[in-house]
């Protein structure tokens, strides 16, 4: 089965899909036509708010817009560029973790809360202490612990950090140097801060060695974690090679061993996704820029079913 568009009414991207109260919700970025020319820093991605979408039938239906849930204007520390976000439920409340540049043009992660999955969400007055970079993904394990995965290279600023500290010159590995790695931190019980220092998420190649910068499957951005059985599936975008890949591990911290490519390059520079089970079936949500004529900053949401073979490897489009 080919991927299909699920929200033709507006440009949305970076879909984070979750099931809350037996209903499927999608939390995307909200693309818009800005005034900045396309550049490697991603300044043309100047999103300003989030909407919550719901989808009753991923195989045939279209999304319903549940409305505006958070705006840049609501966030006390806001600068610009309200990029990817994710939502998790804990203790009957809903927590939206988002990435946004502060007034010094530095990306941080922030938290906003709501009593319902459709918001509106109220932001905390300050970003998460010790947070940086972009593309948060929230994963709640069976024991109730919540982990936040994040990181993105180039415009996502991950290359400006070492040991969780801002550095003077960026680190962009090349060739046989080890590739930059995403980050993970367990969240505090109240979901408002990290409970620990972020640590690298180690992605191993098929030889079980840390992935190198020259490997076309190395991490770039768009972390996502889901669990099936006792295995943890870490999927991500390779950025400059435009793939969605995945790796498997035995615990939320990894390491994760590369398994294969889920999605080949789409029209538009970015590739960003989520994976979710709904009514006994698994789905891969993502985006491309076909409806906008290839404008990479104006993307549209898509979905395709996935399955698993006997060895637990993902098969797309069955």
Structure description:
This protein has strands spanning 4-5, 12-20, 23-30, 49-54, 64-71, 85-90, 93-101, 107-114, 122-123, 137-140, 146-150, 161-162, 165-166, 183-186, 199-200, 203-204, 221-228, 231-237, 244-249, 256-263, 274-278, 281-288, 300-308, 314-316. It is an all-beta fold and 318 residues long. It is built from no helices and 24 strands. Strands 1, 21, 22, 23 and 24 form a five-stranded antiparallel β-sheet that branches. Strands 16-20-19-18-17 form a five-stranded mixed β-sheet, with no helix packed on it. Strands 2-3-4-5 form a four-stranded antiparallel β-sheet, with no helix packed on it. The mean pLDDT is 96. 0% of the residues lie in helices and 42% in strands.
Strand % is: 35-45%
Query: What is the terminal-to-terminal distance?
Result: 6 Å
Number of helices: 0
Mean pLDDT: 96
Structural class: mainly beta
Order of helices and strands: EEEEEEEEEEEEEEEEEEEEEEEE
Keywords:
5-stranded antiparallel beta sheet, globular, 5-stranded mixed beta sheet, 0% helix
Summary?
This protein has strands spanning 4-5, 12-20, 23-30, 49-54, 64-71, 85-90, 93-101, 107-114, 122-123, 137-140, 146-150, 161-162, 165-166, 183-186, 199-200, 203-204, 221-228, 231-237, 244-249, 256-263, 274-278, 281-288, 300-308, 314-316. With 318 residues, the chain is mostly beta strands. Strands 1, 21, 22, 23 and 24 form a 5-stranded antiparallel beta sheet that branches.
